Amino acid sequence: MSNVKNIFAWTLLVGITLILGVSLADDEKESIAVTMSVKGTVEFRTVQTDWKPLKFGVVFKDGDIVRTGPDGFASIVFTDDKTELKVRPKTEITLNAERNADFNLSKKIGQTVGELFVSARQPKGYIQVESPLAVATVKGTEFVSLVRSTGDTRIVTLEGVVELKRKDNQQVIEVAAGRRGTAYSDGRLIEAESDPANVPNFQQDSGTGGDMGKSIEILFENDEGEKRRVIIEVEEEE
Q1: What is the pLDDT of residue 101?
Q2: Is the model's pLDDT at 68 over the cut of 80?
Q3: How far apart are CA 238 and CA 236, in angstroms?
């Protein structure tokens, strides 16, 4: 295991159990992800509401926005395949996702600024992270996305492969494990070896306490009054 990968040895194990059915009903499509851990100042807003504090167990819908303060950190998990997002301080992301015919989510995370860790080891549907300059497409992997205020976007791949494409000229590179790809505001798109010392430590931000051992129950009800629930249990990996 590489030094970069060791930084992320700690993660969340998320068990998802569907009761009264093996898949989500049509009316259940709006809920796409859930908050698993929050530290410091973290806020979110929906298309109908203004900014409010983010708490453990908050369920997200398509178009919801999350932002972290100087001391903020959040862990978010998508409900279809356990894809996890770890959001570091001074970061803003928009969660966009649609369910396809087999009820998996096609995910597009908009990242305006900041530092984001994505773990998608067994993705269902496609996963993209889009910054002002570039789009990163996941191919079953773990990676870090860094977006500066200038729009400069850097992808550091920890496992698997990430495709990085500039939005202006459609230039594409593939970023393998242990490598980094950077889209600069001056038009450059560069792939090079990554330096573990320059990779943000998401393990240190997240800690190990607080929400471990908790569970979240998401209850759904369709037009006929049929109820289903998703139980998500959180425990620390050994």
Answers
A1: 73
A2: yes
A3: 6
The whole-model pTM stands at 0.78
For 91-128, what is each residue's pLDDT tens digit? Answer: 999 999 987 777 788 999 999 999 999 998 777 778 99
Asked whether the beta carbons of 14 and 232 are under 8 A apart, the reply is yes
Contact between residue 62 and residue 82 where contact means Cβ atoms under 8 Å apart? no
